[in-house]
Amino acid sequence: MREAAFVKRNTDKWTEIEQNPTTDPDELTARYVELTDDLSYARTFYPNANVTRYLNGLAAQMHRGLMQNRREERGRFVAFWTRELPTLFYQSHRLLAVSAILFGVACFIGWLSALNDPTFVRLILGDEYVNMTLENIKKGDPLGVYGKSDQSSMFFQITLNNIGVSFRAFVAGVVASIGTVMLLFYNGVMLGAFQAFFYERGLLLDSFLKIWIHGTLEISAIVIAGCAGLTMGNSLLFPGTFTRMESFKRGAKQGLKIVIGLVPIFIMAGFLESFVTRLTLPPILSLLIIGTSAAFIIWYFILYPIQLNRKGAANR
């Protein structure tokens, strides 16, 4: 192919690349591949021509863009956990409080119901679990259920189940937040009844020192997942200045990011429940794990977002 014909065939494409740069990684890569193919052809057939020097310069410019984009992608991961996610938590603090209050009220109802109705615990937890726990209490190992399963399989099952619960709490928010409220209420009642069951048998402290080793992270994450569901549900109920569909899209995106941010929390909770809760630890060590988990939740989800927002406001 003559040089003039080669230039004429590809001029529009090169002009588009030069005058309308893109930041989309896939588009940028596709353009770069095409451009390097053209450069390779030009170097083979027109090694000393102006078009070859032009393509070489344009390819070098695109290469710099690709490298910059890769650095931004690596920084994007860090920015998500250190800035973007805490900012979303700050914006959702009001709904986080609502989620926590709903869960707390449900726990109280579950506690009172279990203390006033002997059949309530069986209704909520099931006969099989109650009978097994009563048998373990007779054996002197009331929380022996945690030591029965294989640790690795238990870890994967618990982690996947907890992540599933959080996503259901989020997705249920699509029904104007009603589904999320129901899930929060059910889980809260179940926790309250569970703790009342041990309280009636004088085992509340023992259960606290065992269960809350993993429960601090697990229950906190469920409450936060409820906040994500309420965020999406409220975006439908209260669109503000946006159209209802635009508001829903924004709320769903914000809520989904919150739920994704909970995955590491559930993984750690699953690890603690599978490998640590089953151990007989000194009370001081159990309290240390529980306190550290609670301090992390309070700092990362409440205090750090407030601090980050104050810094942002001061810099504006």
UniProtKB/TrEMBL annotation:
This is Stage II sporulation protein M. The chain crosses the membrane at residues 95-115, 170-199, 219-242, 254-272, 284-306. Keywords: Membrane, Transmembrane, Transmembrane helix. It comes from Fibrella aestuarina BUZ 2.
